[in-house]
Amino acid sequence: MPRILLGCEESGIVRDEFAALGWDAWSCDLLPSRRIGKHIQADILTVLDDGWDMAIFFTPCTFLSNSGVKHLYIGGQKKNGLYLPRWEKMRRDAELFKACMNAPIPLIANENPIPHKYALEIIGRKYDQIVQPWMFGHPETKATCLWLKGLPPLVETDNVKEIMQTLPENKKHRVHHMSPSETRQRDRATTYLGIAKAMTQWSNL
């Protein structure tokens, strides 16, 4: 039975899609799993050498995303100099991303929003593919980058872009219009079910 690690995934969504296909699928996160299933509550770096056949990572993106790059500077202004606390968190998360991509696992994908140039300098290379929810049955926009090792790009399964374009802005950009809440960051990061199902295209390799 092939083994897959879903790194930094506490939702269990992608894990359960692979488990349904007969994979020995384990999620790993610092938080407990929101769903019942095989889950390791630990630092992802402690399980990278455990003999996985494939890994899909969802490493933290808050400090790597291009949408927040201005916050690396004091007051959001480059002329004011670096905001060092955030810069150090950016470096930490970029190094984590790089460590996951360099793990001794033959097939790897890592998912993140479009990164800024400082994160890319540490990670060492650009992403291989950008996917959107509307390519997989969800009439919304949320550009998601995939870095791939030994895996092909995902093939879209249900293009609903034309439907999406008829919707109001708060529907098309639902994730960006989420109301403030204790779970907002978690909910924004949750993998769309259509994308999770598309990732099982890799189960055939």
Secondary structure elements and pairings:
Blueprint: E1 3-7, H1 13-19, E2 24-29, E3 39-41, E4 54-57, H2 84-101, E5 107-112, H3 117-123, E6 129-131, E7 144-149, H4 161-164, H5 169-172, H6 184-189, H7 193-199
Parallel strand pairs: 1-2, 1-4, 2-3, 4-5
Antiparallel strand pairs: 5-7, 6-7
Helix pairs in contact: 1-7, 2-3
* Radius of gyration from the alpha-carbon trace, in angstroms: 17 Å
The CATH first-level class comes to Alpha Beta
Output the strand order for the largest sheet: 3-2-1-4-5-7-6
Indicate the percent of residues in helices: 25-40%
Q: Order of SSEs, N→C?
A: EHEEEHEHEEHHHH
Strand pairing plus helix content: what structural class?
alpha/beta
Ends apart, CA distance between termini:
14 Å
CATH architectural type? 3-Layer(aba) Sandwich
- The count of domains is 1
Annotation keywords:
single chain; 7-stranded mixed beta sheet
